[in-house]
Specification:
Elements (H helix, E strand, L loop, with lengths): L13 H6 L2 H8 L1 E9 L4 E8 L5 E4 L3 E2 L5 E3 L9 E5 L5 E5 L2 E4 L4 H4 L3 E7 L2 E9 L24 E2 L27 E6 L6 E8 L4 E2 L6 E3 L8 E3 L1 E2 L16 E3 L6 E3 L4 E20 L9 E2 L3 E6 L7 E6 L9 E5 L1
Antiparallel strand pairs: 1-2, 1-10, 2-3, 2-4, 5-6, 6-7, 7-8, 9-10, 9-23, 11-24, 12-20, 13-20, 13-24, 14-20, 15-19, 16-18, 17-22, 20-21, 20-22, 20-23
Length: about 325
């Protein structure tokens, strides 16, 4: 299985929250997560509010057309105490709640006391802030999630593609005859059924994380980014790589022809997403001759390969906590 870092998991395990000391739990319960998403393809904007561990949806706005005006969340848990976000095309601006206005920024000393992060690309933008909850506790029951504006923020994320473990090929008479040329097995890899294809994104940070000065904006681009070679992810020992009839290739370059700008005091970095297809295969060990024994097969396992056309692949600008280190990556279902 791949050795990949687990990043940006949007839901903390409930057991971790319950096992925390009472004082820490009370502190966490008083914070909420606000997410603003702009789908630039459809020009739709939506807002969602969650409790601290993102297990409960507290409120949401309809998917409405983007404009330079403010967006207000004033239903459900926010009926008596509305929350307003006034953000630009790329999610930068301010947030007003409980009589206080904050700047959407990663540093508390600049924002006015909250922590935010942003993502913006050619087709979407997102801002996420962790703010103090001013309502009464406990919070109301969770709402049904019905609005997304095609926000990737709410797709289930995984640390790596789920793959079946590959057991070693069955031991048979062929292993005792490795030195006999006439009985050298023929090794092959074949698709299992239709391959049970699944679509994945591999998202990878391709630049260094740049710290902007407190009074100056900054940018990151070609000079501090790197083009990575992405290879097919193999779920077990493999006789040979195959495309199994899908439009995929064994390796693909990310490229690094992109730049991102950050505001004063912020951190900024570049991420790239590459489309992959996961499919199921098996190793086949064919007997060279009927006298050499029977053919054997391995247990099914998965290959996750980059697609040839990389449809939907893109560069994205990230700020704040979304910036990790160059080379960091995670998988996301698409």
């Amino acid at each position: 299985m791949p050795s990949l870092q687990s990043l940006f998991l949007s839901v903390l395990p409930l057991g971790m929250v319950l096992s925390a000391p009472l004082e820490e739990r009370q502190t966490a319960e008083k914070m909420i997560v606000i997410n603003w998403h702009h789908n630039k393809t459809t020009n739709g904007v939506s807002m969602h509010a969650f409790n601290a561990d993102e297990t409960m949806l507290l409120g949401q706005t309809p998917c409405i057309k983007f404009s330079n005006s403010a967006y207000t969340l004033d239903t459900g848990n926010f009926f008596n105490l509305p929350l307003t976000m006034n953000l630009d095309y790329n999610g930068f601006g301010n947030l007003t709640y409980a009589g206080k206005t904050y700047i959407v920024h990663s540093k508390k000393e600049i924002s006015g006391g909250i922590t935010c992060s942003r993502m913006f690309a050619d087709d979407e933008a997102e801002a996420e802030c962790i703010i103090p909850w001013a309502g009464q506790m406990p919070l109301e029951s969770p709402l049904n999630f019905v609005v997304d504006c095609s926000a990737s923020r709410f797709q289930k994320r995984y640390a790596e593609p789920p793959v079946a473990e590959l057991s070693l090929p069955e031991r048979n008479i062929l292993e005792l005859r490795q030195g006999a040329p006439s009985c050298t097995p023929i090794l092959d890899t074949q698709r299992v059924g239709d391959g049970s294809p699944q679509n994945w994104w591999l998202k990878k940070q391709i630049s260094e994380t740049i710290e902007c000065g407190d009074t100056k904006s900054c940018s990151t681009g070609f000079s501090n980014s790197e083009s990575f070679t992405i290879s097919a992810d193999i779920g077990g020992p493999l006789n040979k790589w195959i495309d199994a009839g899908f439009s995929v290739q064994k390796t693909k370059e990310t490229g690094n022809q992109y730049s991102c700008d950050g505001v004063p005091g912020d951190t900024v970095c570049i991420w790239y997403q590459m489309a992959h297809i996961q499919y199921t295969v098996k190793n086949v060990q064919k007997a060279a001759d009927a006298s050499c024994g029977k053919d054997t097969e391995s247990a099914p396992f998965s290959i996750t390969s980059p697609t040839k056309n990389n449809e939907g692949g893109k560069y994205s600008c990230m700020t704040g906590k979304k910036c990790k280190s160059k080379g960091s990556q995670y998988w996301e279902k698409r």
